Each structure stands twice: as C-alpha cells, then as structure tokens.
Amino acid sequence: MTVQSPRHAVRRPAKRRRATLYALSLLCCSTAMTALPAGASAAPGPHTGASSTASSAPAAVAFADEFDGPAGSAVDGGTWQIETGDNVNNHERQYYTPGNDNAALDGQGNLVITARKENPGNYQCWYGTCEYTSSRLNTSGRFTQTYGHVEARMKVPRGQGMWPAFWMLGADIGSVGWPDSGEIDVMENVGFEPGTVHGTLHGPGYSGSGGIGAGYTLPGGAAFADDFHTFAVDWAPDSVTWSVDGTVYQRRTPADLNGNAWVFDKPFFLILNLAVGGYWPGDPDGSTSFPQQLVVDYVRVTTDG
C-alpha cells in the first residue's frame, strides 16, 4: 500500500492539515485533519462510565487490542493494516514504513510507534529522499463500529514537529470521499503545545479550518509526554463527547454544525499514527531529539450491553 496525497493544502503554519490517499484491498481512502476553529467551546464535566449513555447492563467489548506479544513483533495483521508512503499535502516529512520497522510491540503490553531521523530503506518523499520514518495503522476492512465508547491509553512523544493522532474515518470514504465520509479526531497533539490535545469533527461544510472541536489542557503546566493518559469519545446517535482521563471537555451535536449534515450515524474505522512535521506542527528543529515514540497501552471499543 502506498500513501499518496490527492488534496491541496494551503500553507498555514499555525494550522493543521492532513490529507492522504491510501489504496486498500477493498477501499481507496482519502482523509484530512485540520485546524480547530477559533473560539470552539468546550463542555467540561464529569465522566465516570464506559459510555455516556445510561444503561444498567455492563458494557460489551466490540474491539480490544492490549498489544500483548513478544518484544519486536508486529501488530496483528488480522486487526490492523499498516499503511506506507509519504504525505505531500500536509508537507509532512516522514515516510510510513511497512511491517515492524517503526511499529512494534515492546513485550510489556504496549505498541510503540517510533519516529526516527533516518532512512535505511532509501525511501523517496515529496521533497526528495525522506529524512524521517514512522508508522500509521488502521482497521479498515478489519473492524468498524457505529456508536460506543472509543478509548486509547497512550503516552505521546515530545518535541517540535511531533504530531501523534488517534482518530476515525467513515468506512464509506472509498465511495463518498472526504469530508462526506466524516472524521472523528479522538486525540491530536502537536509538539509546540506539550500540555494540550485536540478533539475535532470533520464533515461536509465543516472540514479544513472549519472543523468543529476544542482543546483540553492539563493543569499546572504538565506535559502529556510525561505520563500515560486515556483519551476517549462517547459516540451516540446525534452526539460525540470527548474526555481525557475521564474528564469530559466537549460535546458536539447536529446543532453545532450550522445546518450542515451530521455524518456520524454509520460505521467508522480506527487509525493510529505518528507524523513528523507538516503545516500545523511545523518541522522538527535543533531542539527536537530522535527517536520519538507514541506508546499505546491499549485501544478498546465498548458498547452498552
């Protein structure tokens, strides 16, 4: 599989843009991840259960990967697809490699996605010989879900130019394209904001810089790279609610879309990746050390039992 870049992106250093086209066995997908609109409102509040929908029945596990296995082994190919290629539209600097070159289990119950400032495979990127390698995984064709509690416990990397993300795309992207497919960004972080993560919705009429979302900032000047944190959405008909470590920070409904279509009542698949550089995070500089790692303890999807 080769990740290509079909969509033009305007240079906006303080914004984010992600656009890729990756060929799958049954699906050809394109996607974009873009900047939060100014003034997006958050809705803080408590979060105590596996789902925001009240239910007396226990949560049913729809998907769970605990990343147990021998150190150095690749992810389960029956669960994840590994994308390969670069991304010209965002002007990201990395090449996403195959196999376990940049995504491997650590033998301690974690998936480690590693960004390196090296290119032993002599991969070619949009700007010439690639300077960095990393990894991007998705569950398209393996697992999709409509509604539920979608959660990952992760420790993000640090440094200028780092761009980890946990997100979802509508499974019909191959037929309707992006942004009509819809996109739910559960968590994004850029290295120049070490204490802040972002959650965003993208769809027809609210994509790009018009994506609907908000950020969450840790108290006391703490950085997300200092420890593991749990990032989640509770996804129900006509609502998506984001939380960090159980604290809700925003809820979005069709009323937030200014009359545009709500495209989040259908199956979506999961994506994990670590990008290096690009319009939104900016490129690494002399302050950025390598390698950098996105360490994933688990990814789980539960539904009301």
Short description:
The chain has 305 residues and is an all-beta fold. It has one helix at residues 173-176; strands at residues 3-4, 19-23, 28-32, 45-46, 59-65, 81-83, 94-96, 103-105, 111-115, 124-125, 128-129, 132-134, 136-138, 148-155, 162-170, 183-188, 196-202, 212-217, 229-236, 239-244, 247-252, 268-276, 292-304.
Describe this structure in words.
This protein is mostly beta strands and 305 residues long. 1% of the residues lie in helices and 40% in strands. It has one helix and 23 strands. The protein has one helix at 173-176; strands at residues 3-4, 19-23, 28-32, 45-46, 59-65, 81-83, 94-96, 103-105, 111-115, 124-125, 128-129, 132-134, 136-138, 148-155, 162-170, 183-188, 196-202, 212-217, 229-236, 239-244, 247-252, 268-276, 292-304. The strands form five sheets. Strands 4, 5, 8, 9, 14, 19, 20, 21 and 23 form a nine-stranded antiparallel β-sheet that branches. A hairpin with a 2-residue loop joins strand 19 and strand 20. The radius of gyration is 18 Å and the shape is globular. The chain starts with a strand and ends with a strand. Residues 1-55 have low confidence and may be disordered.
Give short descriptive properties of this protein.
seven-stranded antiparallel β-sheet, nine-stranded antiparallel β-sheet, disordered N terminus, mainly beta, globular, 305 residues
Helix content: under 10%
Radius of gyration: 18 Å
Globally, the shape reads: globular
Number of strands: 23
The mean pLDDT is: 85
Q: Largest sheet, described in full?
A: 9 strands, antiparallel
Element pattern in H and E: EEEEEEEEEEEEEEEHEEEEEEEE
Number of helices: 1
| Distance linking N and C termini | 37 Å
Name the poorly predicted regions: 1-55
Proportion in β-strands? 35-45%
